[in-house]
Specification:
The protein contains two helices and ten strands, in the order ααββββββββββ. It is globular and about 70 Å long.
C-alpha cells in the first residue's frame, strides 16, 4: 500500500509540474521551412498590403545586420492549434542566395501584453534551400518602426523513471535551461508602411 501511495504521489507531482513549463503561446513550426507564393518581390507584397487595414505588427521589415527583408502578415489559415490570431514571417529577400523568396521564417502570435508577441523562428539553414532549427522568441514592438527579438530560454523537466523501482523515495525532478544564442535576430526596422518618424533610409 505504501508503494502504491508513493507512485501516485510521483504521478501527481509530474502532472502539476509539466503544464507549468509546457504551455505554449504559439504553435511549433515544422522541422524545416515551407515555401509559399506571393512574395516574389517587395512591390508585390506592398500592393497586397495596401488593400486592407494592417495590424500593428504587419508590414515589411528589414534586418539591418544582414539586409534580409521579410513580410509579417496575418495568416488566414491560423494553423491547427486553435490559435485565434497568428501572423507569418516570410522572406522576401535573403542575403543567402539559396534561400528563396516565400520561405516561411517564422510564425507570430499576440500575447496579453500590448505590443508583445510570442514567436517561433527558424535560426539556421540546412545547407540548401530550407531553414531549420526553430526556436522560441519574444518579439516587442518598441515603437512604430522597430521590432526587437529576445530568445526564450527553453525549460525541460526530466524525471529518472529507473528510480521508481525499487527506490521510490529517490525520485527527483530536474529543470534545465537551454541557451541557444540567436544569430542576427536582434531586431528589424520597418520598411512599409513608412513610419511616421522615419528611421535611416532603407533601399530594397
Amino acid at each position: 500500500m505504501a508503494v502504491v501511495c508513493k507512485i501516485l504521489a510521483v504521478l501527481l507531482t509530474a502532472l502539476s509540474v509539466l503544464p507549468a513549463y509546457g504551455k505554449r503561446l504559439v504553435e511549433k513550426l515544422p522541422p524545416v521551412s515551407e515555401i509559399v507564393t506571393g512574395y516574389a518581390s517587395a512591390d508585390e507584397v506592398r500592393q497586397r498590403m495596401r488593400q486592407a487595414p494592417l495590424h500593428a505588427v504587419e508590414g515589411i521589415w528589414q534586418f539591418p545586420s544582414t539586409g534580409a527583408v521579410v513580410a509579417i502578415e496575418l495568416d488566414e489559415l491560423k494553423g491547427e492549434g486553435g490559435y485565434a490570431v497568428r501572423y507569418r514571417m516570410v522572406i522576401i529577400k535573403s542575403p543567402q542566395r539559396t534561400i528563396r523568396p516565400g520561405t516561411v521564417m517564422g510564425i507570430i502570435a499576440p500575447t496579453a501584453k500590448k505590443n508583445v508577441y510570442a514567436a517561433e523562428i527558424y535560426t539556421s539553414g540546412n545547407g540548401g534551400t530550407r531553414l531549420r532549427s526553430p526556436r522560441g522568441f519574444t518579439l516587442t514592438l518598441a515603437d512604430n518602426a522597430r521590432l526587437s527579438f529576445t530568445k526564450n530560454s527553453g525549460l525541460k523537466v526530466y524525471t529518472n523513471l529507473f528510480r521508481l523501482i525499487p527506490y521510490l523515495s529517490r525520485v527527483s525532478f530536474r529543470i534545465y535551461s537551454q541557451q541557444h544564442a540567436p544569430r542576427d535576430l536582434d531586431g528589424c526596422l520597418r520598411v512599409y508602411p513608412v513610419p511616421v518618424e522615419p528611421v535611416n533610409p532603407i533601399y530594397l
